[in-house]
Specification:
The protein is mostly helical. The protein has a single domain, classed as Formate dehydrogenase/DMSO reductase domain (Formate dehydrogenase/DMSO reductase fold), CATH 1.20.1630.10. Helices cover 68% and strands 2% of the residues. The protein contains 12 helices and 2 strands, in the order E-H-H-H-H-H-H-H-H-H-H-H-H-E. A two-stranded antiparallel sheet has the order 1-2. The relative contact order is 0.16. The N terminus is likely disordered.
Length: 313
Amino acid sequence: MKEELFISGRDIPNIDPFLNIWHWEIPVYLYLGGLSAGIMFFAGLFTILDKEKEMETTVKWAPFLVPVALVLGLFALFLDLKHQLFFWRLYTTIRIESPMSWGAWTLMFITPLSMVWAAVYIKELIPGWNWKINIVDQFEEFVKKNMKPLAWAMMGLAIVLGVYTGILLSAFNARPLWNTSILGPLFLVSGLSTGLAAIIWMSKSHFERKVLTKIDIALICVELFLIIHLFMGFLAGSAVSIEAAELFLGGPFTTTFWGGVVILGLIIPAILETLELAGYKVPVWIPSFLVLLGGLLFRFIMVEAGQITRFLY
């Protein structure tokens, strides 16, 4: 039997996750995809619950960010492709077992859907707006009459998109850090939380912020649970899994992950949001900014650390 060797972060000097940002395309793509999924999921949810008036920012205004975020994310992905002129081949077939196929087709549907959703409310955002095209006005009226079916479709696609951002990494079995089923749910919950943070930051309604803050605290608790479960799984696994965990438990990513992602990006925002619900005055932008920053840092660290962990035969 061939001897299995593993290269850990301890064998690679001068690793600094804060400075190693030159390969930014994939982390940014995953971040913007998760953020978009979070915003679209809650826009669809509160539409189905008939809460458009109480949750205006969630349903109407925050979704304007989604088409921009998705286009920028796809552009970042395009820059990372080695054979950029052949990206269209992803759309010549559907492979159920391929995460890239799932992601490509999901993005093809969800991107125009997000544009349609935003277009429905553009007349409220810009008074006096007129399409001046009869067929477009007719299509707008049709969409308005079918907002709930559209919301269901958008929620489903948002969940697939959020999970896909994690499965895209976990499909690489040769990378021990990524080779876990926890990444899909973890990236989904992180995306939902960052989406909520963006909405809370935009909202001017105290009632809306209060509702979303309660949901965000619950999501942060779930995210912390998944992170703990992730490392428990690594530590209970094979030698290579333990070595992967040690990158974060005394290794080169310890400070940035536990200090930047867990403490600064999750625990402190949860504490600040709890204090706000208790009646203390906390600037809205602080916990929202920390959650958004933590989510971005989380993806940079996971992508960078995952590339370090590998098998050699």
